[in-house]
Amino acid sequence: MIRYFSIRFLYGFLVLLGAIVVVFFIFNVLPGDPVAMMAGQRTDVSTREKIREELGLNDPLGVQLLYYINDLSPVSVHKDTETNQEKYNYTKLFHTGESVVVVKPPYLRRSFQNNKKVSEIIIENMEGTMWLALAAMLFATIFGIIFGMLASLKQNSFLDHSMVSLSVVGISAPPFVIGSLVSMVFGYYLADYTGLNTSGQLWENDIDGKRLVLKNIILPALTLGLTPLSIIVQLTRSSMLEVLSQDYIRTARAKGVRQYNIILKHALKNALNPVITAVTGWLASLMAGAFFVEYIFAWKGLGAATIKAVYDKDFPVVMGSTIFVATVFIVINIFVDLLYAMVDPRVRLK
What is the CATH number of the domain that holds 338? Predict the structure, then answer.
């Protein structure tokens, strides 16, 4: 068991390290002067050189990568100065000459636009993306299981063929296309009937303060959840058909067990294993998929902040957001692997 856990954590660490290296090199070969973006074009030469030295831009690219990984690492080595203490907010472990080994939060640098810590920008915008991803996954899971189950019970019927065809469309259509159509139809043309808007936030300012406006999350969650919904429909349908053909289902029917109990207590329960796999895997993916959806619906979240940073060439924010999403994706996948190992001991032997 311990060996299985160790291997999964090692794989996750290597994948994250690879993601960090790729992200670093992609954004460090792009055109543009980070110092000019950060300090402005009219800054004097001495100020620019000071910023360049602080960011390590005078060093070779490989050394800059090591500095970046050192900044991201919770356990790292820095010179023990008041400036570094304020910059990294670290706790000292032990000294090594002029430097000190410390424990600290991952340091994702600062925004070129407002000199704000990237970690603070991520924290400010993360809540909106998390609620949107959870709402989309809840919608996709509930309706995906219901539609998939109905399709399997009405195999080869008009309902079955319609569900399969619509799920193929849902899987194939890009989120930004679906989002544009959903926003135009339900938020503009049919707004008088639906009461929904093309844009809005989960929390809106009111006279008495902030108030929760749940209707604003409906269209973004619907758009974001259509792809996983389509996949869950097909998974549930195929899994249900396989389970319904098993001997113990035929035995239950021969004994006169009611169809309702056969479907819910026996067939559906055993057919949900692949669905659970899809749900846990898609939750992390939806955070990345939310980027374009947030932009279309003007939803305040990490995706909208990242796209704005791309337009502004605010590379630290884009890099930090990408690494954060990659970390969430890896952590969730490790958690799912460990959960399977605890539930099914056979998994640990693979």
Answer: 1.10.3720.10
Q: In 3D, which of 314, 322, 318 has the Cα closest to residue 111?
A: 314
Cβ atoms of 320 and 118 closer than 8 Å: yes
| Boundaries of domain holding 227 | 118-349
Kindly state whether residues 330 and 188 are assigned to the same domain.
yes
Neighbours of 220 (CB within 10 A): 28
Written as one letter, the residue type at 153 is L
Residue 226: inside a domain: yes
Length of the chain: 350
Q: Which of 136-145, 228-237, 242-251, 268-277 has the lowest mean pLDDT?
A: 268-277
Kindly report the backbone phi and psi dihedral angles of residue 104, in degrees, each rounded to the nearest multiple of 5, phi listed first: -155, 165
d(CA 332, CA 284): 7
Beta bridge partners, 117, equal 110
Inter-CA distances, 261 with 36, 253, 270, 315, Å: 68, 10, 13, 56
Determine whether 347 is exposed, middle or buried from the number of CB atoms within 10 Å of its CB (0-12, 13-18, 19+). middle
Together in a domain, 91 and 225 = no
CA angle 125, 126, 132 (to 5 degrees): 105
Q: 249 with 138, same domain?
A: yes
Q: Is residue 4 part of a domain?
A: no
Percent composition of the chain: helix, strand, coil (DSSP 3-state, to 5):
70, 5, 20
Q: How many CA atoms lie within 13 A of 226 on its CB side?
A: 23
Residues 306 and 253 placed together within one structural domain of the fold: yes
Chain segment 284-295, per-residue pLDDT in tens: 677 777 788 888
Let me know whether 77 and 155 are in one domain.
no
- What φ, ψ does residue 200 adopt, rounded to 5°? 155, 165
pTM score, two decimals?
0.81
